[in-house]
Amino acid sequence: MIEDYLARLRSELAAVGIRGRLRARILAESEDHLRSDPEGVERFGAANELANSFAAELGARASRRAAVSAFAALGVAGAVYAVSFIGASFGHLPPSDLWPTLALLSFPAIIVAPQVAFVSGSLALLRSLRRRDRVLPSAELRVMHRRTGLALLAGLATMAALALFAFEVRNETDGWWVVFTLAGSAAAASLLVVAAVPTTGAARLRPRVAGEAGDVFDDLGLAGYRDDPWRFARRVAFAVGLAVWIAGIVQGDPIDGAIRGLAEALACLAGFAAFGRFLGLRR
């Protein structure tokens, strides 16, 4: 009876994504307990329910840990990006009409990808801090995995585009800026890859726990917008566009600031449309 139960438990653990050393340890501890109490098989409960409970608890902890690790790595990448972006003003970066083709192609990614990384990473961290329950619904875990995964991918895309841009303009820009940008991008990308390991591990766990995932209005405590999520999106887009326009006015170029502000506002709306359901921004 014990051997049959352990065989079923082994299969059920694999079905919910628990494999390798962790599965071996769970089976060993379960066998020790059952050998010391042969009649405890009934008290252990069904193998599928036990395996699911392990996956549910492990999945919640692993998902929160992955979100925190990803945000920390993104913080380093953000610092490299900020220093490089600001340093370009002092590194005698050539005007855009003199940029090589690949530099021109990489520049949109340098602008858009870090925004996606910041928003996705912040939302993943916010969700991990808000939901401290021992067990989370499967739908909740999927949202956290998507937010964390997209943040890391966008962060890697940012570092790759930044490195490509620096390499392409190396002959027209100060050497110190090129060296810093290439080295910093490589180091930050390495940290992002390392942060992807716990994210991948958390995504492998597949507990079956009922419940809804919630949305960004739960994260921000703005339930009043749930009935009309696009009202929230429009207000955020307006605020972002206005901030960019004001920055342009401060810099003495209100027309260019207005154009960039409109582009940022439209990008916000496009992002809400493209990633709204995928990232759990709206239901």
Descriptive tags:
elongated, 283 residues
Explain what the structure shows.
This protein is mainly α and 283 residues long. The protein has three domains: 2-45, no CATH class; 61-209, Up-down Bundle (Four Helix Bundle (Hemerythrin (Met), subunit A)); 214-283, no CATH class. Helix content is 76%, strand content 0%. Helix 4 (47-87) crosses helix 5 and helix 5 (101-130) packs antiparallel against helix 6.
Q: Quick summary of this structure?
A:
Helices cover 76% and strands 0% of the residues. By secondary structure, the protein is an all-alpha fold.
What does the secondary structure layout of this molecule look like, with pairings?
Blueprint: H1 2-15, H2 20-36, H3 41-44, H4 47-87, H5 101-130, H6 138-168, H7 175-204, H8 216-220, H9 229-250, H10 254-275
Helix pairs in contact: 1-2, 1-4, 4-5, 4-6, 4-7, 5-6, 6-7, 9-10
> Helix count, per DSSP?
10
Tell me the number of strands: 0
Shape: elongated
The CATH architecture of the largest domain would be: Up-down Bundle
From the N-terminal CA to the C-terminal CA, the straight-line distance is 46 Å
Q: How many domains in all?
A: 3
Order of helices and strands: HHHHHHHHHH
Helix percent reads over 70%
Residue fraction in strands? under 5%
Largest sheet: none
CATH class of the largest domain: Mainly Alpha
Residue-averaged pLDDT: 90
